[in-house]
Write a structure and sequence with these properties.
about 350 residues, alpha/beta, TIM Barrel, 8-stranded parallel beta sheet, 17 helices, binds adenine, binds zinc ion
Length: about 350
């Protein structure tokens, strides 16, 4: 590893854009599939990995939902979540805000209770043994109707002690934020934090809509904001966080290569950008690989990396006190590891 990669890897950081179903490594998918008697289109992990060659977001989602079909039991959700948390801890992630997609599991007859008990068991273990703090975000699938989203939202209310935020994911084309106006109004009224994927494949107007109509406090991806100078000025002024996922954007052909990614321009414009892994089992790396590959391809400087880590804590939903402690740890790291 280069000095820059080592520095990035050692930094304490938060991860704010991570789909737990997207951490299902092919080996685990095959093993759980066999255990649960679920048939898959790939005979082994190698064949699955070979199929992970995506044209765009939809071609990825088709495979991602198929792979997710092996998850049936509480134990499956526990194993999936604890494996991610161990990996995150090993990469110096101190805090992580995790998405889950209940609708994809409910449709297969898996209960809300099974999903949440499995995930929660792992989160609780991570707090205790890995010293990683967590928040949980329930994502609504935007390719389904708002009524279906509201149905799952009502179910979630019985579990709200474990759910901190409501998000919006899946196919952006043809499913604008405005489709979920009522649901997000309810979510905010119930006191949930709210976020939405916007400006990943969609244009800057999707980001404007997510902010103005859904009232979200953070944008997931948001890389297309750079097409709209006035929007950029507003995002910078209000320091609205954008959870950018460089490897995901390259694998899903949002950018032709990492050298073409606009992360550095976003940083230079003073935006509150963070670096995250999205679906690390599919996109070639966890959070540290996202930092290091972006840093190398874009010639990021030490200061940029520290800014990204600082933003990750500032953009998180942890308490002011906890935030100050993490930021102090980051400052100490920078002092002890002058770059
Ligand atoms: N679900 C999982 N990963 C996603 C992504 N990158 N965009 C939209 N929905 C997703
Ligand atoms: Zn995502």
């Amino acid at each position: 590893m280069t000095t820059l990669e080592n520095f990035a890897a050692g930094m304490p950081k938060a991860e704010l854009h991570l789909h737990i179903e997207g951490t299902l490594e092919p080996e685990m998918m095959i093993a759980i599939g066999q255990r649960n008697g679920v048939e898959l289109p790939w005979p082994n992990a190698r064949a699955a990995r070979k199929a992970y060659d995506f044209r765009d977001l939809q071609s990825f989602l088709d495979i991602y939902y198929r792979a997710t079909s092996v998850l049936l039991l509480e134990q499956d959700f526990y194993e999936l979540t604890i494996a991610y948390l161990r990996k995150a801890a090993s990469q110096n992630v101190r805090h992580t805000e995790i998405f889950f997609d209940p609708q994809t599991h409910l449709a297969r007859g898996v209960s809300f209770e099974t999903i949440l008990r499995g995930i929660e068991l792992a989160l609780e273990e991570a707090h205790r043994t890995l010293k990683v703090s967590t928040k949980l975000i329930m994502c609504i699938l935007r390719h389904l109707s708002e009524e279906e989203g509201l149905d799952v939202f009502r179910q979630a209310l019985s579990w709200r002690r474990w759910i901190n935020g409501i998000g919006l994911d899946s196919s952006e084309h043809g499913n604008p934020p405005s489709k979920f106006r009522n649901l997000f109004e309810r979510a905010r009224a119930e006191g949930f934090f709210t976020v939405a994927h916007a400006g990943e494949e969609g244009n800057a107007s999707c980001i404007r809509e997510a902010l103005a109509i859904l009232g979200v406090s953070r944008i997931d991806h948001g890389v297309h904001c750079m097409e709209d100078e006035k929007l950029v000025a507003m995002l910078a002024e209000k320091q609205i966080p954008l959870t950018v996922c460089p490897l995901s954007n390259v694998r899903l052909k949002v950018f032709a290569s990492m050298q073409d990614h606009n992360l550095k321009q976003m940083l230079r414009r003073g935006l509150c950008v963070t670096v995250n892994s999205d679906d690390p089992a599919y996109f070639g790396g966890y959070v540290n690989e996202n930092y290091s590959q972006a840093a190398l391809a874009l010639a990021l400087e030490g200061n940029d990396l520290v800014r990204l880590a600082r933003n990750s804590f500032n953009a998180s939903w942890i308490s002011t006190v906890q935030k100050a402690l993490y930021l102090q740890e980051l400052d100490r790291y920078c002092k002890d590891n002058p770059f």
